[in-house]
Write a structure and sequence with these properties.
mainly alpha; 77% helix
Amino acid sequence: MAENLKIEKLPSSGETPTVPGENIGLIEKIGYGTGDLASNFIWTAMTTFIVYYYTDVIGIAAGIIGSIMLFSRIFDGVTDVLMGYIIDKTKSKHGKARPWLLWLSIPFAVSAVLLFMVPNVSTFWQVIYITITYNVVSLVYTGLNVPYGTMNSLITQDQYQRSVLNVFRMSLALVGTLIVSNLTLPLANFFGGQRFGWVLTFLIFGLIGSSLFYLCFRTTKERVRPANKEQQVKTVPLKESLKTLGKNKYWALATVFILLTYIFNALNSGSVIYYAEYILDNTLLVGLVTTAYTVFILVGMVIVAPITKRFGKRNAIIVGELITILGYLVMLIDVTSLTFIVAGTIIRGIGKAPINGSMFALLGDTIEYGEWKTGIRNEGMVYSGGSMGIKVGSGLGAAIIGWVLAFGGYVGNSAVQTDAALLSIQTIFIYIPMGITILILFMMFFYDLDKKYPQIISDLKTRNA
């Protein structure tokens, strides 16, 4: 196996070179995107409303919920790596990643419904129930999300096609976010509110999600095989596979990037309901603020693929984060004004388009770098980092919401909050996410794989020949 090869440096100006490959049909692109649409019918609803449901519907203290979610995310970090290894060992007539969408779609929907069926018992037993069901949902989600992310690298090696697939994925994910953020509260209230209304709402979301996962399974195809012929028939040991991740600096950067992005996403989605109720004085504004954000991400996603092809993923992400910071500066003009909040949200949405449109394609490119550097291709293990980033980031974001609210003295269901509690709500909606954006911006200057990628593919094809 090849070790520590030197990469020929490519020019730093002009169009970012891409690797030619098969053209993926429109039906397969849409079909691939429906996998994240399916996830978001359940996962986004959970991340957006779960803390609110536990604190204001069930009545559990925010600090307890934050601690539960942090524990779950640490647990997820282990299961993600194990699931990545399981994918790399999977050999079936449907491939190594696709079959998991078929096998786990229904269990995911069922477990999500159970999450909201918190029994009317003592607080202690409610906390036990929440801890168990939340971890079960996370475990099943791992079994779906790691394979789903891995599929991007198995469908094609073409950088541009991967970016296009990721655009379809994230665009349909945002459609799911848009639907769920606008329908969850109205549906739950329509069905009577309280536990029953939420359970029935998630039963509907679960049925839709399972159907979409099956559609994703049926319309996609795995094509990419390892350059090392021996690895096509033999499984790389777990210890050796883990070592390859340690040698892959771009995988580490991409994983941390996804982790920080999903902390940002969790804060953004989970804090908006508190901000709408206590700062803007109207919970129905959740839909307006979320819609403004999501629609303009979708608008920006239309041009993400050609921009990343021309300038590279890293450069597009850097510009996007700068635009996001501008959006927050607009909000800070008057944090209590709906006009400035919506205007800043629209600007943030435009800025987040290249981030959402590039991050998983970014992770996919690190697979070839790892294979080029170590001789081992381990898509499942690499994408376990992406899934770990999603869930640990989402959990940390939710935990931060609970902790900051508790620190500020927030009291669920209280008609009036203290000034400290109101400041804590502003902190989780504006100040912490803006700080994360600045951190990501700085970190991306160290990612320079875009220019090296074509030479890496050329070397891999030479080895394969």
